[in-house]
Write a structure and sequence with these properties.
Largest sheet: 6 strands, mixed
Bound molecules: 6-O-phosphono-beta-D-fructofuranose
Strand order of the largest sheet: 1-2-15-12-10-11
Shape: globular
Distance between the termini: 57 Å
Radius of gyration: 25 Å
Strand content: 5-15%
Helix content: 40-55%
Amino acid sequence: MAAASHDPTTTAAWSALGAHGDAQTPDLRGWFAADPGRAERLTLDVADLHVDLSKNLVTDETLHLLRQLAEQTGVQDRLRAMFAGEHINVTEDRAVLHTALRRPAGLDPLTVDGQDVDADVQAELAKVYAFAEKVRSGEWTGVTGQRIETVVNIGIGGSDLGPVMAYEALQAYVHDGLTCRFVSNIDPTDLDETTKDLDPATTLFIVASKTFGTLETLTNARLARQWLWDGLAVEDADEARRSAVAKHFVAVSTALEKVADFGIDTENAFGFWDWVGGRYSVDSAIGTSLAVAIGPERFAEFLAGFHAVDEHARTTPLERNVPLLMGLLNVWYVNFLGAQTHAVLPYSQYLHRFPAYLQQLTMESNGKSVRWDGEAVTTDTGEVFWGEPGTNGQHAFYQLIHQGTRLIPADFLAFATPQHPLSDGGTDVHALFMANFFAQTKALAFGKTAEEVRAEGTAEDVVQARVFSGNRPTTSIMAPSLTPSVLGQLIALYEHITFTQGAVWGIDSFDQWGVELGKQLALQIAPALTGDAAALESQDSSTKALIDWYLQHRS
Ligand code: F6P
């Protein structure tokens, strides 16, 4: 049984943290000066990730109290329950077993709810790998006999963000002659722009949808199917149409009967299970486009990266458990220091979709205001995650992080060895890039005092504008290079950070009821846009007026 829910604010650790926060004046300059061992003590390794927590607004006492909070809210018990397959997704009565997707073959069998999880995972993975090999080798051809050059993944949310983020991140590993594209939005622009220069004869669609009931994905899949039939001039006969679909469409879903209803042969469908949440599914068959792009061997390395961090999270004591500590730091900032957002700033152009990916992971998971026992929370929960790659962000929003009135904890990510070691007239450009990475966290932590500004000869009337307060918290996460394994490690790191926060808050991080109402209303409103007068009249006055305006202006 999963632990009963709790109100974290009633714990002794919560009260102690409150008092500690009130009494503390953050002083990173002073703390570093007084404690030469701080950086070393607060830098931890997890698999290939080298994580420096020392520029956070914490003392040893803060960390001690945060660990007590984790103990008093049962974080590690809940983690054990998750790994064991208990139904910790209470509102959907489901196990939460994304960690099983990356368990290597040959471990002690994991049986959950009567299912041999490992056997099923390995069997499905084998199917995905066999398919990926066929596409990569050219054995899988389109209906005209030509090899596939472009794979288009149609999916949304977790059925899109993970695959597209990972595909972009691992560009350096993508098979020559194969390109992936991604269609997610029901804005018809997306499908049209994505397919407009493609040759249907060499295009394969992967329709990725856990439920196979998502309006956006099914609409786009039908549009893509029509595009294929039109482009290949497939005659209007069932058999011809079916064989075109069989060669140009595969599916990934937990609902294989709906896949068949759509007209995709379930032989060409890859399954997964209801214990994989959409936002935790890039390492399931939802990652098929990625497996095709980088190949089974690299995909296996990707999974091994996740598993290494899972093992760290599962077995490392709290004192050195990086994802759990990072989750606790986030709780510290949100609940005791008033942070409302958290920036993730990858110094890697390849990770340009990583913040967007994390937005679903963190905000769909922890954007909750009731606990898993149905009681209202009594404190703030999930913060807003956002970010852009450095150095672009430096020239846009870093001003606010450095000198604004908001506290914005930020994670800085970087890699020692670049994929593109270019030199600009003898200057190593990656070194220049990294100099920015190091400079930013230093500036944020230690700032610049009025005396230092004056010492540069600055006119007195602009001194204050040039002061940097410092004490702006950051975590630096570095790895040797952005490999498939390291990407898996980074994703798993953030999964367990998200888990930790939700476990402290006593909320169900694995449901997403908050996305449902808008979906229902869209279906109710749709007839009002296409002539149903009663549907239009039944709207509230604001919505009705907006629809009227739309109908008048739609050309
Ligand atoms: O609407 C939210 C959501 O349910 C996400 O949780 C999920 O990742 C996405 O929609 C897509 O769902 P599906 O994979 O079932 O199409």
